[in-house]
Design brief:
- The chain is α/β, with parallel strands linked by helices.
- It has helices at about 15-20, 40-45, 60-65, 85-90, 105-110, 135-140, 145-155, 160-175, 180-190, 205-215, 220-230, 245-260, 290-295; strands at about 30, 50-55, 75-80, 95-100, 235-245, 285-290, 305-310.
- Strands 3-2-1-4-5-7-6 form a seven-stranded mixed sheet.
- β2 (about 50-55), α3 and β3 form a beta-alpha-beta unit.
- α7 (about 145-155) crosses α10 (about 205-215).
């Protein structure tokens, strides 16, 4: 039976992800972001009747969509992937054979105006991945100090006009609070010039990215998830991470580099024997990008980068990621 039949969502790197991840068809695997289940379905096709797949998502709509999968090998868990270790331990699972982390916002979230992720649609200025908790983008925008808004837009949106945007936001909200995506996007467009290198890019693109990352603590969640993955994976277990912009990919690349080269930074003049040096936690990370053929079918895959590596047998002690 083709369990992906009639499923319209196109997951990025659809062939590469399951082929790299599943080495033992009877093993236990984790899909850190279910989304609409594109990768989960492909992973299930690779598993034997004894295999298991645990998917996580902090979006209630995604969890509801997972109910469509009536497969005894599959289980959805309503939680962010940063909590995967604790949630799996509650189920009696202390090690797994492979973990996939697909970072960032999903296509269904972007395309749903009610979620407030996109300036392309007018909707409530929300941006929360988990709408049951936390403050909305509107609540933050309407009360944050100009300095904080500037910092968020600059750090997470890499927006060079961050202070100008922050000043305009603070002035505008004294007259009328922000409640919709259109109001914020229009305000930003009125004070930020078009990108000369990419005239099609909306002036609010970077700001919306920065606010969304901040509201959902996406980079903090990623750092926690990488450490959780390191402690859960069995020797030779695979960790795959798909990122869509430089902030995420920088963290992932740094993580794999630290894990493969734990002796980096140690003075080579120190009289240490090889067995005294810290041992690698992961093999050397590898990188995969979409093919030209995939980009023709799925343009949204254009900025995706897959990095992966296999776990060694070195005990996990945790890493401090920046």
């Amino acid at each position: 039976m083709d369990i992906a039949k009639n499923f319209k969502h196109i997951p990025v790197l659809a062939k590469e992800v399951p082929d790299i991840l599943v080495r033992d068809p009877s093993g236990i695997y984790v899909d850190g972001t279910f989304g609409r289940g594109g990768h989960s379905r492909l992973i299930l096709e690779k598993l034997s009747p004894k295999g298991k797949l645990y998917a996580f998502d902090r979006d209630e709509a995604a969890v509801k969509a997972a109910e469509e999968i009536s497969d005894p090998r599959f289980r959805i868990i309503y939680a962010p992937f940063a909590e995967m270790k604790e949630k799996l331990i509650e189920l009696g699972i202390t090690s797994v054979n492979g973990i996939l982390l697909d970072i960032g916002v999903s296509s269904p979230q972007i395309d749903d105006a009610e979620r407030g992720f996109s300036f392309r649609f007018d909707g409530p200025l929300d941006m929360r991945m988990d709408t049951s908790t936390g403050m909305t983008a509107a609540e933050w925008i309407n009360r944050a100090a100009a300095e904080e808004i500037t910092s968020v837009l600059e750090l997470y949106g890499e927006e060079k006009f961050s202070s100008r945007i922050a000043a305009a936001i603070c002035e505008r909200r004294t007259k009328e609070p922000f409640t919709t995506t259109k109001a914020l996007a229009d305000l930003i467009a009125s004070v930020v010039p078009r990108n000369k290198k990419d005239r099609d890019q909306h002036p609010a693109t970077r700001s919306f990215q920065g606010i969304r990352i901040f509201i959902n603590d996406e980079l903090g969640q990623l750092r926690q998830a990488l450490n959780a993955a390191g402690s859960l994976l069995q020797p030779e277990g695979i960790l795959e991470v798909i990122s869509f912009h430089s902030l995420e990919d920088r963290i992932v690349k740094h993580f794999f580099d630290m894990c493969a080269n734990p002796d980096k930074g140690i003075d080579p003049r120190l009289p240490l024997r090889a067995e005294q040096l810290p041992q690698p936690l992961f093999s050397k990370g590898k990188k995969v990008v979409p093919t030209k053929e995939e980009l023709e079918i799925n343009p949204r895959a254009r900025s995706s980068i897959l990095r992966f590596a296999s776990r060694t047998g070195t005990p996990w002690k945790g890493l401090e990621l920046t």
